[in-house]
Amino acid sequence: MPLADKRVQAIDPVWSRTTEEARQAVADEPLLGGLIHSAVLHHASFEKALACRFAQKLASGEMSEQVLREIADDAMADDDSIAQAARADIVAVFERDPACERFIEPFLFFKGFQALQCYRIGHWLWRRGRRDLALFVQMKVSETFGVDIHPNARIGRGIMIDHAHAIVIGETAVVGDNVSMLHSVTLGGTGKEDDDRHPKIGDGVLIGAGAKILGNIRVGHCSRIAAGSVVLEEVPPMKTVAGVPARIVGEAGCVQPSVMMDQLFGVGSPEA
């Protein structure tokens, strides 16, 4: 490996691994060569590739790919936490999703990862007062991926949204670091109040498929929300809740539910 490549790998191992996988993917499936080159291999950095992927996915007759790419470039030049969070999200998907075998897979193909990175650009726009453009990004993400995240929501890093169909995250929702959620999850409000009205999800929480968490309630860190649950009351840290309405049914079962991805009652232990 050339010395320059070794330096890049030491500085940005996620980007180095992604480009290595991209080259192998082109060799394995030449029909995808155009996509992989335009999305990954034509770029000098992870940030530039991420901006390009954002633009490729959201471009339409309403806004060109070039304009969208300039927006994303500006966002990542101004706030390096956007791309750092995206790197953490790739690693989270790779480590937690048994269907993910390479870093390049979420980058190119997984709509949960892609929708989340588009939200991060929209959130940057919202925080800078460019609300109409942020809402435009939200609309296009919803149309493209079936994921509706308000640009004012606050979402941490190391997030995995598996399958990512019919995800709804409301305006005042907060999601901590290292959270995993499956499809059809709603972090919603109740009624028509216009103040702080959405859930606050702690670090390391696992939210099962179809779970609905409603209202300005707190879900404690490293807790587990069973699939199909409707959560209307605060959840203490490191507990498992299930049912409609949800009730505490036991301990979380392990130290990091979002990483272990264990959704079976009675399996594991707090020491796992």
UniProtKB/TrEMBL annotation:
<dbReference type="InterPro" id="IPR053376">
    <property type="entry name" value="Serine_acetyltransferase"/>
</dbReference>
<dbReference type="Pfam" id="PF00132">
    <property type="entry name" value="Hexapep"/>
</dbReference>
<keyword id="KW-0808">Transferase</keyword>
<dbReference type="InterPro" id="IPR042122">
    <property type="entry name" value="Ser_AcTrfase_N_sf"/>
</dbReference>
<keyword id="KW-0012">Acyltransferase</keyword>
<keyword id="KW-0677">Repeat</keyword>
<dbReference type="InterPro" id="IPR011004">
    <property type="entry name" value="Trimer_LpxA-like_sf"/>
</dbReference>
<comment type="similarity">
    <text>Belongs to the transferase hexapeptide repeat family.</text>
</comment>
<dbReference type="Pfam" id="PF06426">
    <property type="entry name" value="SATase_N"/>
</dbReference>
<dbReference type="GO" id="GO:0006535">
    <property type="term" value="P:cysteine biosynthetic process from serine"/>
</dbReference>
<comment type="pathway">
    <text>Amino-acid biosynthesis; L-cysteine biosynthesis; L-cysteine from L-serine: step 1/2.</text>
</comment>
<protein>
    <recommendedName>
        <fullName>Serine acetyltransferase</fullName>
        <ecNumber>2.3.1.30</ecNumber>
    </recommendedName>
</protein>
<dbReference type="GO" id="GO:0009001">
    <property type="term" value="F:serine O-acetyltransferase activity"/>
</dbReference>
<dbReference type="InterPro" id="IPR005881">
    <property type="entry name" value="Ser_O-AcTrfase"/>
</dbReference>
<dbReference type="InterPro" id="IPR018357">
    <property type="entry name" value="Hexapep_transf_CS"/>
</dbReference>
<feature type="domain" description="Serine acetyltransferase N-terminal">
    <location>
        <begin position="14"/>
        <end position="118"/>
    </location>
</feature>
<dbReference type="InterPro" id="IPR045304">
    <property type="entry name" value="LbH_SAT"/>
</dbReference>
<dbReference type="GO" id="GO:0005737">
    <property type="term" value="C:cytoplasm"/>
</dbReference>
<dbReference type="InterPro" id="IPR010493">
    <property type="entry name" value="Ser_AcTrfase_N"/>
</dbReference>
<keyword id="KW-0028">Amino-acid biosynthesis</keyword>
<dbReference type="InterPro" id="IPR001451">
    <property type="entry name" value="Hexapep"/>
</dbReference>
